[in-house]
Amino acid sequence: MVLSIPREYFKAGRIASNVIDDTSRKVSVGDRILDICNEVEAMTKALGGEPAFPCNVGINSVTAHYTAEIDDESLIKNGDVVKIDFGVHVNGYIIDTAFTLSFNPDYDALVRATEEVLKEAISTIREGVRAGEIGRVVEDGAKKRGFQPISNLSGHLLQQYKIHGGVSIPNVWLASTPLLKANEVYAIEPFLTTLDGAGVVVDSSIRNIYSLISRKKTGDKRLDSLIDEIWRRFKTLPFTARWLIDIIDKNEVKSMLDRLTKMKALHAYSVLVEASQRVVAQFEHTLTPTENGVIVLTQNKQDMGDEVYE
Q1: Which domain holds residue 75?
Q2: Burial of 273 (0-12, 13-18, 19+ CB in 10 A)
Q3: Annotated catalytic residue: which of 8, 41, 50, 189?
Q4: 308: pLDDT strictly greater than 90
Q5: Do 237 and 212 touch, CB atoms closer than 8 A?
């Protein structure tokens, strides 16, 4: 076996594995979302990586793109189902991973099914498998366990400084999808909900994650300086207002980011919620296909020897 993916993926994967192990043991009822996000991001840095995007904490029907606000006092409550989705990058090479914790026995089966479906999907992956075939495994696995996938969310190709690299890995069967390639890196992330749900997510009015899409001058010196600082710190990777309060007063930063969004210098990500307000569970791993199978980078805790590299 010869790999040509950058070594940074393996380092980022080991960091992510350690963060998962630590966080999944520590999070409990009564914890603040803000503390969870800060601790995940701080541990990522302490282990030698950088957050690839703000830590997402999605409670119950909140499915994606929610990170803690600057003074967020939201708590994990008894009865909640909590999704924690975070990314690690090393020199722009990104690992994306997620897990779900249930503090409600009524949804333990949903959480367990989502993790099992991810494992089944991974077991089918190798070079040349079509993305839609992975979606078929997720969809069939969900239905046989009495649940359904979120059909308008998908996994994705990862590239340097690009979380979504142009190839999607659906969670339902789709025809005419691309073949997965060896020496490319993909995130596989089933989202499952109950059969009485809509099975799709919709945009909410909340937006607190941003990414830079233009470096054109705005004519406002403070905004132009902020754009330069965003580029220096994050390039085009997603970020949040919490990450800028060391240079901008916390009472001003959100309004400045919203102004840049209106000027189309930034993209703001809407928080996604299940359309029928049903609980959603998520698990995610990052992997690279090989001729005979797959290497799961978020489970790999050992250095790969030089013989696997070109």
Answers
A1: 8-203+271-300
A2: buried
A3: 189
A4: no
A5: no
Examine residue 305 and state whether it is found in any structural domain, yes or no: no
Q: What is the pLDDT, as a whole number, of residue 4?
A: 87
189 is a domain residue: yes
| Band of residue 310 on the pLDDT scale cut at 50, 70, 90 | very low
**Looking at residue 307, what is its pLDDT?**
33
- 156 counts as catalytic: yes
Q: Is 258 a catalytic residue?
A: no
Q: How far apart are the first and last CA of the chain?
A: 10
Kindly state whether residues 126 and 184 are assigned to the same domain.
yes
The reply to whether 35 belongs to the active site is: no
Residues 118 and 193 in one domain: yes
Q: Share the mean pLDDT of the chain.
A: 95
267 is catalytic: no
Please confirm, yes or no, whether 284 is among the known catalytic residues.
yes
Same domain flag for 276 and 265:
no
In a domain, 308, yes or no: no
What's the CATH number where 258 sits? 1.10.10.10
Cβ pair 52, 237 in contact under 8 A: yes
What Å distances lie between residue 179 and 117, 124, 156, 175, 270, CA to CA? 20, 13, 12, 11, 30
More confident residue, 213 or 302: 213
Number of structural domains (the chain) is 2
**Which of 164, 184, 258, 267 is flagged as catalytic?**
164
Q: Given the structure tokens 């999605």, which residue do they identify? A: 58
For residue 2, tell me if it sits in a domain: no
